[in-house]
Amino acid sequence: MKKKVFVFFPDGVGLRNFAFTDFKTIGEQMGFDITYWNNTVFSLKDNLGFNEVKIENHQLHPLTPIYSRARKRCELNVSKAKFNDDVYTTYKFPFNYNSIKNTFKSLYTKLLIGVYSSEKGVEAIRKKINALERKNPKYAYCKAQLETHKPDIIFCTTQRATQSISALLAAKDLGIPTVAFVYSWDNVPKAMQVVETDYYCVWSEHMKQEVLQYYPFVDAHQVFVTGTPQFEPHYDERLRVSRAEFFKTYNLDVNKKYICYSGDDETTSPLDQYYLEDLAHAVRNLNKEGYNLGIIYRKCPVDFTNRYDAVINANKDIIEVLDPIWKQVGSQWNQVLPAKEDFKMLHNVCEHSEFVTNVCSSTVFDFVAHNKSCIYYNYEQPQLKKGIRDIGQNYKYVHFRSMPSDKAAIFCTDKKNLQDLVKQILDGKLSNVEAGKKWCEIIVGKTPTLASENIWKSINSILNKK
């Protein structure tokens, strides 16, 4: 008899990895009965024809967001003390005092932080959050769904969503094994593990060691190294089209060589538009030297600002805008959902660009999969002033300490050097591909094409234990 797996989407961030890749197909080929337990506004049944059980109740206990914010800060305080490292302070977002309601929430959160900022305190606040969510009507709602459909296991597609807490508690209380996928490469040191499940799937051995380091309540046997489906499409030759076809589809000049500028969200890089402007100036100067270059600007899918418009309009002869194929279905950042077609687009942007430039994102791994280099901007802009976040702190984060060498990416630390770095890459004199692949192996794992299969093998292993 086929084992019934609920693939749980507490929010939309997991759709890209687990609905639009071959994840479901591989699982079915391995003999699993797959149903999507869907807490998002995106209908998997209507859009993709998948079996789904919709969660229509999206309640949280009123105190859960406050306790969750406090929990994160408490964990960061513990890490700062435990590892004697001030970097954990930089992961904290400022408190909000712009209304009476937000002031009350902030003051209450600070009170909780004062009480729970110890290892025992973190354990206590997690128990408190669980107790709150067991009182949340959504708990009973999800428990009833599970009793009706009787899945053998729950696979949660992200560990960082508060919307998943009550649902996973209901599963655990019914004796259904739960597995969480650690969503992003920087999530573990940033204290973004919202849920406690029976098992965890992580990208790499490096990430497994992080989970064990930061969460002493997790044992090694609970953590499976699987890789992430995020990068599988880069190795899928079915997605590749010829340069001529790609350029024709997006009205690019076949005579030009294009550099990809991958935009960032406003929190990570608040002055990001000025780095695009710097690249445009470098390209314009190199074109005067006889190069024939253009820029493909691919924005961050969750950036809704118009901050790039002036730069793009001033450089229309150089910059081509290729927006990600994502759809906004709600007002929150996690309600901007990818379309399946974006896999093909991104694959070919990587394949047919010369290299990528951006501020500190994981696109370095997207591009090294296509043997392309990456320039990271790491200099201050003159527009930087008090109250604007300096991008330099990004490179001090814990996940950047995983770089095997400073050659794993090409760092531009002075605007004056940008043009020369671009020229050296184009002339074949500078590359981070070799060291970048080593870094990719550390972060993404040794089998980037087998992540979906590895996750299903881990699920099978857990079910056999049961």
From TrEMBL:
SUPFAM superfamilies the UniProt entry points to: UDP-Glycosyltransferase/glycogen phosphorylase
Top-rank taxon, per record: Bacteria
Protein name: UDP-glycosyltransferase
